Amino acid sequence: MPKSKWVARFPFLEDLREAARWFTPGLGVKRWFFFIMAGVTLLGVGFAILLLDLYRTDSTNELLLTFLSYASLRFLPREIRALLFGGIGIWLVGYGIVRLNRSLLRPYLRTGRVLLDDLSDYRRRKRGPRIVAIGGGHGLSNLLRGLKEFTRNLTAVVTVADDGGSSGRLRADFGILPPGDIRNCLAALSNDEQMLTQLFQYRFSGAGDLSGHSFGNLFITALADITGSFEGAIAESGKVLSVSGRVLPSTLHDVQLVADMQLPHVVNEVRVEGESRIPQMAGQVRRVWLEPNDAPAYPPVLKAILNADMIVVGPGSLYTSLLPNLLVQDLLGAMRSSRAVKVYVCNLATQAGETDLFTCYDHVHALEEHIGERVFDVILCNSNYEGQLNEDSQWVIADEKILADPRTFCTDLINESQPWRHDSNKLTSALIEVLDEYTGPLE
């Protein structure tokens, strides 16, 4: 008879199957269950010794003897009594532990979720690989949205060179580091994708001083004032959003991105100061650097990079999101020293005013020309060019030069509904495939 029919006929079998799931390897439950059982057993032995002593010292009390005889089921064979009392005891202990945990954890459980499923998912991701993702903008947050389903040991390293929009205004008015990219990453890593995340991403409209500001940017700015530090504000924001991992700035210094650009119909190169102004100049970027160029990296970033199993750079704007991180010399030095597998994720489409007509090879060449050497072990490129892009962008093609590089790995990475953006799940699967190839499959 099929299992479903057995369960339909005997509903308690489903309860037994659900109870057995608590003993699945890796949940960290069995050890404590047996620890409790050992304590209950010793307590039972002590209680039995007291009863035996009472039985022997008060053997003339026939009423007591009769009660103890029936209570211990002495009319049954000893083996049956052992199984009966042991089974009831195990069931009472197990049921009590489950109900107690549910009562204690009820305020923290999400609606519609099963406690065992949440525990199993948490333990699986806690054992996940240590991954550091470096970048900024929507590309990094999109990457994090997929990686958080695979591991909790996730560190996002974000550029702080942004000087445009809400972040630029707050940077100028309050003297704090730009919170915009950090806000996006915190929202992407949040375990709650519902109202709280929407609130953090909410942007004020209309006229007035709040126009254009996002709630998350203002929240981080207020926390920076309350905690007395920008890094403290990020940590507290992560607690509010219950993020899976960490978001860290590449440096705590107030740095500015500067570029030398070749503009159309202009003979000499033009120097452009400010991250937000570079794409607006509609020229070709020759070189970018940070001022000051000796800003030290944030120490927790260096520790995360040196301990990582995988370091992922990109996707993101080549000159205004990726290089501002890699131009922090301490951070780049830690990458060179790290034993992690280093992956560059190439963009799907060109960015107007920054990487017009660039191929995959052009992206990699520009990166390695700025950082001075071949740092990456793998270059991850897209192989699917189907879909309609925006008018001012083209596909970043995996050209012959990049295909001739043994580091190149091409696969379908596009989001079907928004082909200019990576699909979080496809990108994560490709990265895990790369990691498995270098380190072996992770349990």
Explain what this protein looks like in three dimensions.
- By secondary structure, the chain is α/β, with parallel strands linked by helices.
- The chain has two domains: 3-116, no CATH class; 125-439, CofD-like domains (Rossmann fold, 3-Layer(aba) Sandwich).
- It contains 18 helices and ten strands.
- It has a seven-stranded parallel beta sheet with strand order 3-2-1-7-8-9-10, with helices on both faces.
- Strand 1, helix 7 (137-147) and strand 2 form a beta-alpha-beta unit.
- Helix 13 runs parallel beside helix 15 (329-337).
- The chain is elongated and about 115 Å long.
In short, what is this structure?
The protein is α/β, with parallel strands linked by helices. It folds into 2 domains: about 5-115, no CATH class; about 125-440, Rossmann fold (3-Layer(aba) Sandwich), CATH 3.40.50.10680.
List keywords for this structure.
single chain, 3-stranded antiparallel sheet, alpha/beta, 10 strands, Rossmann fold, 2 domains, 443 residues, 49% helix
Main beta-sheet annotation: 7 strands, parallel
Shape: elongated
Strand content: 5-15%
Terminal Cα span: 35 Å
Please bin the fraction of helical residues: 40-55%
Low-confidence stretches: none
The order of strands across the largest sheet is 3-2-1-7-8-9-10
- How many β-strands, per DSSP? 10
Oligomer: single chain
Continuous helix count: 18
User: What is the CATH topology classification name of the largest domain?
Assistant: Rossmann fold
CATH superfamily name of the largest domain? CofD-like domains
The helix/strand series, from N terminus to C terminus, equals HHHHHHEHEHHHHHEEEEHEHHEHEHEH
Helix/strand-derived category reads alpha/beta
Level-2 CATH architecture of the largest domain: 3-Layer(aba) Sandwich
Mean pLDDT: 84
Cα Rg: 30 Å
CATH class of the largest domain: Alpha Beta
Instruction: Return the domain count.
Output: 2
